[in-house]
Amino acid sequence: MTVGDSPLGRHRTMHGQVVEWLGRRIVSGELSHGAQLPNEADLAAQLKVSRGGIREAVKALAAKGLVEPRPRLGTRVLPRDQWNLMDREVITWHGTASTPDFLTDLLELRLMVEPGAAELAAGRASDEQLAMLESAYLGMAEHAPGLPDAEDAFVQADLTFHLTLLRASGNQLVEQLGRLLEPGLRHGLEASSHAPGGVAATLPLHRAVLLAVRGRRPAAASRSMRRLLATTTTAVQHMLDQ
């Protein structure tokens, strides 16, 4: 970083950069529960932004439940149980912070939601959605032998498979949940692609889900998705324990 540069990146709006810079440090634990943020003037000088920009960023973080600004006492980081963990940015920050507990919680949530979504999709998926599911699976199969070099393409195909399945459930709340969780889901799929033996074990299970949904067999679709997620969880947990 050259003299005069801000610690913030050059992407997005300045307000967004400040929110992200602070948010990532809170979620990673660098700024832990009860920690006091530097005062407005010092933080503005450190990040080379206006005091108004800092004030607006703190308001945004407070709306997410991460901090509490108190007049004349400063701004402190709130405990995790007060954070809005369903906020897209908070989910994204968890992913980049590689938080094991969050990854485990995400897998548990998926296990509660996706088998039911697969069951509904077996009865409701449109021809277009079935074609997208098959295309996503074929993309995974194509790029799997090229891992880890082909990670980006493989994970994108895997993500498309799961998001399409959630949409194919025909339930607008399940679809909305998928859009909300997309940043965390992407991180989870990246992690599972790194797990030794994970892709080899789960790729045939993706095919089983596809065949059950395409064959209009709800119980089989739910059962296959449950087996897929249980296998993924085992592989990821083994990786985390190493």
Structure characterization notes:
By secondary structure, this protein is mainly alpha-helical. The protein folds into two domains: 14-82, Winged helix-like DNA-binding domain superfamily/Winged helix DNA-binding domain (Arc Repressor Mutant, subunit A, Orthogonal Bundle), CATH 1.10.10; 99-241, Up-down Bundle (Four Helix Bundle (Hemerythrin (Met), subunit A)), CATH 1.20.120.530. The chain is built from ten helices and two strands; from the N terminus they run H-H-H-E-E-H-H-H-H-H-H-H. The protein has helices spanning 14-28, 40-47, 51-63, 88-97, 100-124, 127-143, 151-168, 172-194, 198-214, 218-241; strands at residues 67-70, 74-77. Strands 1-2 form a two-stranded antiparallel ribbon. Strand 1 and strand 2 (74-77) form a beta hairpin. Helix 1 crosses helix 3 (51-63) and helix 6 packs antiparallel against helix 7. The longest helix has 25 residues, at 100-124. It is elongated and about 65 Å long.
